[in-house]
Give the backbone structure.
Amino acid sequence: MRKILLVTALLSFAAALWAAVPRAAALQVTAMQTSDSGAFPAFNQANELYSKGEYEKSAAAYESIASKNGVGTPLYFNLGNAYYKTQRYGKSVLNYERAARLSPRDPDVRFNLNFLRNVVKEPPEPFPEIMVTWLNSLISLNELTILCSALFFALMFGLMAALALKRSGIIVFNAACGLLLILFSGWLLVKLNMEVFTREAIVVSGPADVRNGPGTENSVGFNLPEGRKVTVLGAKDDWAAIGLKSEGLKGWIEKKYLEEI
């Protein structure tokens, strides 16, 4: 039993180290390697516009790249910066949020996102959700999926080896892999629920009225400033049902004010 716990602890430590290694550079290269050979020049031209202080033009250039050549952390990060310079805080928060999902450990992305959250007066999360958010900031969804897949194949290999060799060391290895697979699979399910199954959006223009029903004939319950994050609960025609986790409020808002992360 001690051997199993020791191996499990060592594998957990190795997995944590693997998750903590920054990979922003790899994501940057991957994002710009598209079928369009003009992706890199276009990205450089957008950066030049930004460095010259032509922020509106640089934002439009980054948006054009995103629509034609795919996305990546540097693109979202630069787009967030450009929108911040033009005081379009909703669009800025939106792109920092997207960058954070691709590279959750990137210090620049995290700093800018937290800074903008303070600017738009985003309420702090309850303590349990703060811990979940911190845990999910250690690794991206893609990385966690790869890690779970690697553990699954390691366990399958170990089971086949155990049938062929019947050695006690392999049994310990399989037990450790099985425990870690259960642990990280649970983490993966939580992350999938937060980033895929739960639809989140940013108020990209505002202040936006939140009404008690889907239509202008309904009374206004409260309003939201540009940059606030909401949970999308449903939709009807041109209206979206939204909720605010921190305040526990719900209502209906016109879709034109929102853009999903």
